[in-house]
């Protein structure tokens, strides 16, 4: 992968995910760093990532990063827990612009939030199976106990727009029943799709369990990173949403409809990219 020189502060930020889930990270970046422009890529043709191998996820991530670098981005956010777990270390070695994932910020916050030392993590099979959250939590809270639960159906339910639906409620109850009785007081939403059904998850888990949204924490960490690197755009923006660019690998119209709802904006138009060519 070709190295890039550090970009100017006015260059956009690249954000990618397996599908629409990364829009939760985009939403937080827009809120916390409104002066920054975003180039988003959702790999909607190959979603979900959770059941795929590390080698496949790494290959997909490398293709997407090559595409984002061609868009002139100054930094990249891997807004996918599975890709963060499997590919981030490789990507860090292959490019010379700042790149961060969503796992470390979420793990740090969970370790600092728990009061009884019992933390739950829900995510894809890949994320939960990698035990990556446990690795980072143990660095902050060595005595913490982490209970993981894969929830593979959450991702396709969100992708289909079933955010407030009896089917989603029933699946969530089945998935979360065991976690609810495990004594955890903190639960990491370990997939960027999951904040979109946060209300359902929170209702089932109850008020005694604090939900950690890595999307918020990642946007906060990104702002700090851009500042440290001297590439935080200092100019407040009054530009339109058209300054942000959205790309997908399939079903651009469907993605655009979902993005308009998730970001609470109108007139978002995505373009389809043949990502396998990168």
Provide a descriptive summary of the structure in words.
The protein folds into 2 domains: 13-101 and 216-277, Rossmann fold (3-Layer(aba) Sandwich); 104-214, Rossmann fold, CATH 3.40.50. The longest helix has 17 residues, at 54-70. The chain contains 11 helices and 10 strands. By secondary structure, it is α/β, with parallel strands linked by helices. Strands 4-3-1-2-9-10 form a 6-stranded parallel β-sheet, with helices on both faces. The chain is globular. The protein has helices at residues 23-32, 54-70, 81-94, 103-113, 125-130, 132-140, 154-159, 166-180, 198-205, 214-229, 252-262; strands spanning 13-17, 38-42, 75-78, 99-101, 118-123, 145-150, 186-189, 210-212, 245-248, 270-272. β9, α11 (252-262) and β10 (270-272) form a beta-alpha-beta unit. The termini are close together.
Question: Can you tag this structure with a few keywords?
Answer:
278 residues; alpha/beta; Rossmann fold; 2 domains; 6-stranded parallel β-sheet; 4-stranded parallel β-sheet; 10 strands; 44% helix; globular
Helices and strands in order, then pairings?
Elements: E1 13-17, H1 23-32, E2 38-42, H2 54-70, E3 75-78, H3 81-94, E4 99-101, H4 103-113, E5 118-123, H5 125-130, H6 132-140, E6 145-150, H7 154-159, H8 166-180, E7 186-189, H9 198-205, E8 210-212, H10 214-229, E9 245-248, H11 252-262, E10 270-272
Parallel strand pairs: 1-2, 1-3, 2-9, 3-4, 5-6, 5-7, 7-8, 9-10
């Amino acid at each position: 992968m070709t190295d890039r020189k550090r970009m100017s502060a006015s260059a956009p930020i690249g954000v990618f995910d397996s599908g629409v889930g990364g829009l939760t990270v985009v939403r937080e970046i827009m809120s916390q760093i409104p002066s920054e422009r975003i180039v988003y890529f959702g790999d909607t043709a190959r979603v979900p990532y959770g059941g795929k191998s590390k080698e496949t996820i790494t290959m997909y991530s490398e293709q997407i990063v090559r595409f984002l670098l061609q868009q002139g981005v100054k930094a990249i956010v891997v807004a996918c827990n599975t890709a963060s777990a499997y590919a981030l270390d490789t990507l860090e070695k292959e490019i010379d612009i700042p790149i961060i994932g969503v796992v470390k910020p979420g793990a740090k916050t969970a370790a600092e939030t728990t009061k009884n030392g019992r933390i739950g993590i829900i995510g894809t099979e890949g994320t939960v199976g990698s035990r990556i959250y446990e690795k980072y939590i143990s660095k902050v809270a060595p005595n913490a106990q982490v209970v993981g639960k894969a929830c593979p159906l959450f991702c396709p339910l969100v992708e289909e727009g079933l955010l407030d639906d009896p089917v989603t409620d029933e699946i969530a109850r089945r998935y979360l029943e065991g976690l609810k009785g495990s004594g955890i007081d903190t639960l990491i939403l370990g997939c960027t799709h999951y904040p979109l059904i946060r209300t359902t998850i929170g209702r089932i888990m109850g008020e005694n369990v604090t939900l950690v949204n890595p999307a918020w924490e990642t946007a906060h960490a990104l702002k700090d990173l851009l500042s440290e690197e001297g590439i935080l755009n200092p100019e407040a923006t009054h530009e339109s949403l058209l300054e942000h660019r959205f790309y997908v690998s399939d079903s651009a119209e469907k993605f655009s409809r979902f993005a308009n709802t998730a970001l609470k904006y109108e007139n978002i138009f995505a373009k389809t990219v043949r990502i396998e060519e990168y």
